[in-house]
Write a structure and sequence with these properties.
Blueprint: E1 4-7, H1 17-41, H2 48-51, H3 53-70, H4 78-92, H5 97-115, H6 124-131, E2 136-141, E3 158-161, H7 172-182, E4 189-193, H8 196-206, E5 209-213, E6 225-228, H9 234-244
Parallel strand pairs: 1-2, 1-4, 2-3, 4-5, 5-6
Helix pairs in contact: 1-5, 3-4, 4-5
Length: 245
């Protein structure tokens, strides 16, 4: 019945909220401190627009949001948005173009280093190892974690960064790309994710089965959609589906 299973990552295979807050503040704090030290070594003052952490970070976020509105095709490519917002902010505060490019790229390197410090649910690694013996597996994420370096990468021969292909979920192209690389039709695949709008509805619309990872139990579920409270419940769900035929 099922040949393949695709997984969302953030808040499906690990809790992500704390990691993103840590990463958001951490990479911007690194930029402020490293840039100030570099300018001090050259006898130059710190840049006033990013000297205060809260005000600089707020401006950085505002620039990202504006860029997402102005370049809607890039709205899900969070690495691009962050990089361009940093370049723009640094130039607006007095850095020349080449220095702004250099420091924005360095800050994004720090972002990706911090972003990788996720802790998968303890059940995730053995679960995926067991599933990979029977199903083809793929990851589909709107996040900008480096997919090849994330902790569970070895379980996913197919990994789709949906924003980077300009098709952020719920765009069906992210799912169709994964299914094409898995050589699987939608009716023979299941998607597992925590977002009703970005994971469950688009997968269901394509004809995939879907496992909604949620502790909510307040809405009727469409045909071919089941709810689980935690990804560790997935084997039990799969066994139940097999018995039903």
């Amino acid at each position: 019945m099922l040949h393949a299973i695709t997984f969302d990552l953030d808040d499906t295979l690990w809790d992500n909220a704390g990691v993103m807050e840590f990463t958001e503040h951490g990479h911007y704090r690194w930029l402020r401190e490293a840039l100030a030290a570099w300018r001090e070594a050259q006898g130059e003052a710190a840049l006033p627009g990013i000297q205060a952490h809260a005000e600089g970070l707020d401006d950085y976020v505002a620039r990202r949001l504006r860029l997402a509105r102005e370049v809607p095709e890039r709205r899900g490519d969070f690495t691009w948005l962050r990089l361009r917002a940093l370049e723009e902010q640094l130039e607006a505060n007095g850095l020349n173009r080449s220095a702004a490019l250099m420091w924005a790229a360095a800050a994004m390197n720090e972002f990706h280093r911090l972003r990788l410090q996720v802790t998968p649910h303890p059940e995730a690694d053995p679960l995926l190892a067991r599933l990979s013996q029977r199903y083809r597996l793929a990851a589909i994420t709107n996040g900008n974690i480096h997919l090849a370096r994330q902790p569970l990468a070895h379980h996913f021969p197919v990994a789709i960064a949906a924003g980077e292909i300009l098709a952020p979920k719920p765009d069906p192209r992210a799912f169709l790309t994964a299914l094409d690389r898995l050589q699987t039709r939608p009716e023979h695949a299941m998607h597992v994710g925590d977002s009703w709008e970005e994971d469950i509805l688009p997968a269901n619309a394509l004809g995939m089965r879907a496992a909604w990872v949620s502790d909510r139990d307040d809405r009727p579920l469409p045909h071919r959609v089941q709810r689980i409270a935690h990804v560790k419940e997935l084997p039990e769900l799969l066994a139940w589906l097999e018995k039903r035929g």
